[in-house]
Write a structure and sequence with these properties.
Elements lengths: L9 H11 L14 H21 L12 H7 L8 E5 L3 E7 L8 E6 L2 E15 L4 E15 L10 E5 L2 E7 L17
Antiparallel strand pairs: 1-2, 2-7, 3-4, 4-5, 6-7
Amino acid sequence: MARSASKVPVKAAREAAEAATPAPQAQSSGLQLWRPFESLRREVDRLFEDFGRDFWRPAFGRPLIDIEPFMRREMPWMSAPAVDIAEKEAAYEVTAEIPGMDEKDIEVTVADNALTVKGQKQEDKEEKKKDYHLRERRFGSFERRFRLPDDVDTERIEASFAKGVLRVTLPKKAGTRRSGKQIKVKAG
């Protein structure tokens, strides 16, 4: 089947754009030349305002505030934890904030020159009262993987967990500590 190609005449498109845009009025200010960009900016602003209004519109006739407490409870383990990585003289240190979990829920492994931190939490809650019965189940997991530098001694890696913070210490191999020298900055 043969494809048909059509060219858009550039001159006609340019003329159409000029016809749609009002001519700048003669004024002493050179800012009038930017009028087409101002109308474009206003149009983009209007689109974002419309998006914002529709985004918060209630779903299924219920206001968003009704479901918000449930979402907030699940969020700590729904996404990957925030991580800080620091290099010290003798070791690297990985610190991850993992609120709402216990050390039994966390697994730290080293394989293929990579450090992997996994977490999994399952919660089952049941309430029985005279006039209602409630049962909730939640499950969440995460996994983060970090490539190890060549100078890490994988046999001496240690991990500790306290108050919702995981700290993994990655000692450097003996003899690979970087020596540094401060360079004096001269004027001129």
